[in-house]
Write a structure and sequence with these properties.
Length: 175
C-alpha cells in the first residue's frame, strides 16, 4: 500500500501519525532566504526568486544607465542587466574580488543580476522572526526592504526585489 494513502483508521490508531503537530515541523520554501554579504552586513533574498548564482564576470557598461546598473551580461543568449547592491544602497564601492558573485533573480518575467560581495547561506526564517520595514519608521526605505529578521545573534535585512529588478530592467528597456 502506498504510505501516503493510509486510511483514517490507521491514523487514529497510530501513536505518531503524520497529522500529529508534535511529531514534525513545517518546512516551507516560502520562508527560505539566500543570505548574502555586503561588507560585514547580511542581507536576504527570497530563495524562490533566485534563479542561479554565478561567479563575477566582465560586464558591458551601458551609456546613461543609472549608476547602480554596472552593465549587462550575456546569460545563455539573454542580455541581463546587473545591479551593484553596494552602489544601490549608497555603500562604499570596493573593487570586485574572487568572492564577488552575481545572483541572478527573477521577479515575474524580469531577470536581473545582483552583484554582491559574497553569498553566505540559505536560512529558514519564520514569519514571527521578521519585523516589517514599516515598523522601522522613516529609517528604512520600504521600497527596498521587506523587513529585518533575527536569526540567533545575527540580524538579516530582507530585501524587496521588485524595486531592484525594476531599476535594472528599466536600464535596458530603452535599448
Amino acid at each position: 500500500m502506498n504510505p501516503t494513502m493510509q486510511t483514517n483508521k490507521h491514523h487514529e490508531s497510530s501513536p505518531h501519525s503524520f497529522d500529529d503537530p508534535e511529531r514534525h515541523t513545517t518546512f516551507s520554501v516560502a520562508n527560505q532566504y539566500l543570505t548574502l554579504m555586503l561588507g560585514d552586513e547580511e542581507y536576504g533574498l527570497p530563495i524562490l526568486d533566485v534563479q542561479e548564482i554565478r561567479a563575477f564576470s566582465r560586464l558591458t557598461p551601458l551609456p546613461n544607465a543609472p549608476m547602480s546598473v554596472r552593465g549587462v551580461m550575456n546569460l545563455r543568449g539573454r542580455i541581463v542587466p546587473v545591479v551593484d547592491l553596494r552602489c544601490r544602497f549608497g555603500l562604499e564601492l570596493v573593487e570586485y574580488t574572487r568572492f564577488t558573485v552575481i545572483v541572478i533573480v527573477r521577479v515575474g518575467a524580469k531577470i536581473v543580476g545582483v552583484a554582491v560581495d559574497a553569498v553566505a547561506d540559505v536560512v529558514d526564517i519564520p514569519s514571527a522572526a521578521v519585523q516589517a520595514a514599516s515598523d522601522l519608521g522613516s529609517v528604512a526605505d520600504a521600497s527596498l526592504i521587506r523587513g529585518v529578521a533575527r536569526i540567533e545573534e545575527r540580524v538579516v535585512v530582507l530585501l524587496r526585489l521588485e524595486a531592484i529588478v525594476a531599476e535594472g530592467a528599466s536600464a535596458i528597456s530603452s535599448y
